[in-house]
Amino acid sequence: MLNAMPSLGVIADDFTGGTDVASNLRSAGWRVVQTIDVPDGTEAIDADAVVVALKSRTAPPQDAVLDSLAALAWLRRQGCTRFYFKYCSTFDSTPRGNIGPVIDALLNALGETFTIACPAFPDNGRTVYAAHLFVHGVLLSESGMRNHPLTPMTDANLPRVLSAQSASKVGALNLPFILRGEAREALRRLRADGVNVAITDTVTNDDLARLADATSDLTLLTGGSGLAAYLTPPAERAGAPFQAPRGPRAILAGSCSPATLAQLGHARTSYPSRHLDPLDLARDFDGAVNDVVTWAAARLSDVPVVIAASDEPARVKAAQNALGVERAGTLVEDALARIAARLVDLGVRQLGVAGGETSGAVTKALGVRSLEIGPAIDPGVPWTIARGSGDPIALALKSGNFGGEDFLVRMWSVLP
Ligand SMILES: Nc1ncnc2c1ncn2[C@@H]1O[C@H](COP(=O)(O)OP(=O)(O)O)[C@@H](O)[C@H]1O
Ligand SMILES: O=C(O)[C@@H](O)C(=O)COP(=O)(O)O
Fold it and tell me: Which residues form the Four-carbon acid sugar kinase nucleotide binding domain (predicted)?
């Protein structure tokens, strides 16, 4: 049978962002494959869309640019002719980047001068109005994102945020043009005025559908995963049935978002759980990891064990003050990654991970090379089958802020 060549290439700046956009493409009828980093093999990809998941969101800007350009070059070699740079629906970045520098570099490499920035994902409460980003109706800068451990977002004005990190001229496509069906013409005018990146207002899914139509001529789209759910696939074809591996279950959490903290609170009433403290890790890393693995090993079954470093903002700040922001984050990521690998060695075959950076660290430690995308548990969070060096495992990578309060308990009932 002939392989289908992918037409759409997606570059995601973190692994949960990758599964998020892959899940939305799947819901729109695309056959999607997600790779972890740029594959080194020469195997042809049999899919309509390929998502290359990088861990570039918090990397130094020059590394994020180089990794994104390598992904773009690889996607072009696979036959992709249209591209999508997926970043966070809450525009997670710092004044140095990496959203702006990567957009600039992708436009330049593609020989293009214009794209949109569409972070909105209304199904998860992310909307954009008058070029300001809202999270469940609250300005980004007043939402839980202001306390994010790595990318605190303290400004909701997206043209200002993007202009600070990009050489591109930033403009805005306001909602009335979208509602009146004049988005394509308004984008054309912005482009004629020398704008390179237009921040697009979006309040509802209908706005996303109109935007997908109005931008059908753009080679590069950028944004959260919301818009991807409205891109038309080349042809609807049934994918292979999704059959998850079976075995003991575990949940690992490094996200400190309000959503994850609430989900952990809910899960702790049903599942055995342990807290991982960065200060303990700094004192005796191996000892703290061994302790929690020994605890989990005695409890492995189809009732998941929960291991979480997640904490309230004041306690996260205290750990960061004592250890430094980067060291606190790295210690926790390294520990959760090591624990994941040990648990899989002990037989765990169904694993939920909360947090984007955390998922990146865990996925790398497990040697995962590709993810087959399965059914969505909540918008933007699918079950996947992770394949790599060892046995396949069922893996759900949850963006910190996604999922309902009962997510960590309900997720198992969605598993085929
Ligand atoms: N108790 C803690 N103190 C300090 N940093 C922490 C703590 N728990 C987790 N972290 C770090 O916070 C970061 C959370 O980021 P991430 O995993 O991307 O979650 P989210 O998806 O919510 O953004 C990670 O680097 C993680 O290691
Ligand atoms: O677009 C989104 O909101 C997510 O896909 C995402 O990238 C969230 O980031 P993390 O919370 O760091 O996973």
Answer: 250-408
Residue of 19, 20, 261 best suited for mutating to test ligand 2, as the one with most atoms within 8 Å of CB: 20
CA 224 to ligand 2 centroid distance, Å:
8
Distances (CA, A) of 42 to 204, 284, 363: 41, 42, 22
User: Do residues 222 and 283 both lie within one domain?
Assistant: no
Residue with tokens 């996604």: 402
The ligand whose atoms approach the alpha carbon of 223 most closely is 2
| CA of residue 1 to ligand 2 center, whole Å | 36
For residue range 16-63, what is the model confidence (pLDDT) as tens digits?
999 999 999 999 999 999 999 999 876 778 899 999 999 999 999 999
* C-alpha span between 101 and 118 (Å, rounded): 16
As for the ipTM of the complex, it is 0.97
- Across the beta sheet with 138-139, what order do the strands follow? 126-129, 132-135, 138-139
For the chain, give the mean pLDDT: 95
Instruction: Decide if 158 contacts 164 (C-beta within 8 A).
Output: no
Rg (CA), the chain: 20
What total number of domains does the chain contain?
A: 2
Which of 166-180, 198-212, 236-250 is least confident? 236-250
Q: What pTM, to 2 d.p., does this model score? A: 0.91
Query: Crossing angle for the helix pair 15-27 and 356-365, nearest 10 degrees?
Result: 100
From 255, 279, 292, 336, give the residue whose CB has the most ligand 1 atoms within 8 Å, as the site to mutate: 255
Please report whether residue 241 resides in a domain: no
| pLDDT score at 150 | 85
- 200, 230, 260: which is the final residue of a domain? 230
Closest to 148 (Cα-Cα) out of 99, 89, 85, 90: 90
CB burial string 286-315: b at 16+ within 10 A, e below: eebbeebbeebbeebeeebbbbbbbbeeee
pLDDT tens figures, 143-197: 988 988 888 999 999 999 999 999 999 999 999 999 999 999 999 999 999 999 9
181 C-alpha to center of ligand 1: Å?
A: 41
pLDDT at 138: 97
CB 316 within 8 A of CB 149: yes
